[in-house]
Amino acid sequence: MPPKKSSKDTADVADNVVAFGRVRKNLKMGCVGLPNVGKSSLFNLLTQQSAAAENYPFCTIEPNEARCPVPDARYTFLCDLWKPPSTYPAYLQVTDIAGLIKGASDGAGLGNAFLSHIQAVDGMFHIVRAFDNDEVLHVDDSIDPVRDLNTIQSELCKKDLDILQKTIVAEELIVKKAGGKYKMLPLFTETTTKIKAMLEQDQPVRDGSWTPAEIALINEKIQLITTKPTIYLVNLTMKDYLRQKSKYLPLIAKWVTEHGGTPRDIVPFSIEYEEKLDSLKDDPAARDEFLKESKVKSKLDKIVTEGFTKLGLQYYFTAGEKEVRCWTIQRNCLAPQAAGVIHGDFEKGFIKAEVVAYQDFHDLCEGGKSMGPIKAAGKYRQEGKTYVVQDGDIIHFQFSKSAERR
Fold first, then answer.
1. pLDDT digits (tens, 9 = 90+) for 127-144
2. What is the Cα–Cα distance from 268 to 304, expressed in whole angstroms?
3. What is the pLDDT of residue 64?
4. Which residue from 21, 54, 140, 199 lies 20 to 30 Å from 287 (Cα-Cα)?
5. Which residues are within 8 A (CB) of 389 and not within 5 positions of it... i.e. 6 or more apart?
């Protein structure tokens, strides 16, 4: 089930209606990091693909893309209850991007091409290597997660400086061609000056303090890499993962929190452990025994749900005899726009949304499909155009069919 939102998370969303990033429902998380940290192996595990994952730098050249279902006990409950012929979960789009190295922003290791691939995604899984293994090459010949974190951040900031400079030049050219009919807005000048000062100090733009107007301008005109939300996935040895301890974790946690992140942004996991568990998928008894002995769980579900949440996405359900489906929307989406995800005519002709919160349905349905007990308890609501759809709502939309003919 997707992680519950804290009161702080809710307040942040309410206070920051304008957020960095594109507004759409098919946003992507990119797997980013140095070579040989486990990016492609993680991608394969998450998506059950077979992307190359060899032990040499730049094994991945062109980005691999796939999607993985978002695990959710609520969706499973609804599917088990209705047993419809058609089911459709929410999906997280994931891109495996080739490893970056120091100097990538200047073209080292085909870096500019790889940085453009990062620019094309909406959020980042920053995979950090936190294990010693002489058989797995490290691009810098030694293990130092803090150095590696600094390297990636510096390269992304340098690339953003390049993007910023090109944007400024393009804007100046527009002003020049307008011949005095168009002037550069003070907001643009002030914002770009502020961005430049941050990036020159290797500070990501997302860590700054920005007004809604500044964020809207950045989204529209500049589209920087360092505005993208980031989750740090720390790849441990199986031994360290089983004992839930690593000499590198405190150093990584300190770096992340000092650079604008929170403890929730850090997810320790182990490719070695996950691959072992995956190898037992066709032998349920052996898999259960391994889980029992190890006393820890897979982190793949958490990685997916955290990535989905980090992108500002959520979903509502439609449920019935024919289909149970998750419909992905952005947080703070109003009911008409949520209806439009199903079909544009639903938004144009929106009349009302009949809504029940998932938890209310679960607690009151008495194991049946009828909305009778929910209505009797006063938990079946009719909502209008200003209703902000909540994660996990079960909704039936009513709309005017005359909108279809207009």
1. 999 988 766 555 566 789
2. 13
3. 84
4. 54
5. 314, 316, 329, 333, 334, 335, 338, 353, 395
Please tell me the predicted confidence (pLDDT) of residue 335.
98
Q: Is the pLDDT of residue 237 over 90?
A: yes
Please give the Cα distance from 145 to 280 (Å, whole number). Answer: 31
Entry pTM: 0.86
Residue type, 142: S
Helix axes 111-119, 145-178, angle to 10 degrees: 80
Closest CA to 330 of 1, 18, 15, 67: 18
Average pLDDT over residues 11-36: 72
Domain spans in the chain, listed from the N-terminal domain onward: 7-310, 333-405
Residue 57: band (very low, low, confident or very high) from pLDDT cuts 50, 70, 90? very low
Write down the mean pLDDT value for the chain: 87
3-state secondary structure the chain: CCCCCCHHHHHHHHHCCCCCCCCCCCCEEEEECCCCCCHHHHHHHHHCCCCCCCCCCCCCCCCEEEEEECCCHHHHHHHHHHCCCEEECCEEEEEECCCCCCCHHHCHHHHHHHHHHHHCCCEEEEEEECCCCCCCCCCCCCCCHHHHHHHHHHHHHHHHHHHHHHHHHHHHHHHHHHCCCCCCCHHHHHHHHHHHHHHHCCCCHHHCCCCHHHHHHHHHHHCCHHHCCEEEEEECCHHHHHHCCCCCHHHHHHHHHHCCCCHHHEEEECHHHHHHHHHCCCCHHHHHHHHHHHCCCCCHHHHHHHHHHHCCEEEEEEECCCEEEEEEEECCCEHHHHHHHHCHHHHHCEEEEEEEEHHHHHHHCCCCCCCHHHHHCCCCEEECCCCECCCCEEEEEEECCHHHHC
Does residue 49 have a pLDDT over 90?
no
Query: Strand 313-319 and strand 28-32: pairing?
Result: unpaired
Which residues make beta-bridge pairs with 317? 326, 394
Domain 7-310 is of which CATH architecture?
3-Layer(aba) Sandwich (3.40)
Considering Cα of 104, then 66, then 228, then 137, what sign does the dihedral take? Answer: negative
The CATH number of 333-405 is 3.10.20.30
Which tens digit of pLDDT belongs to each residue from 112-125?
566 778 888 999 99
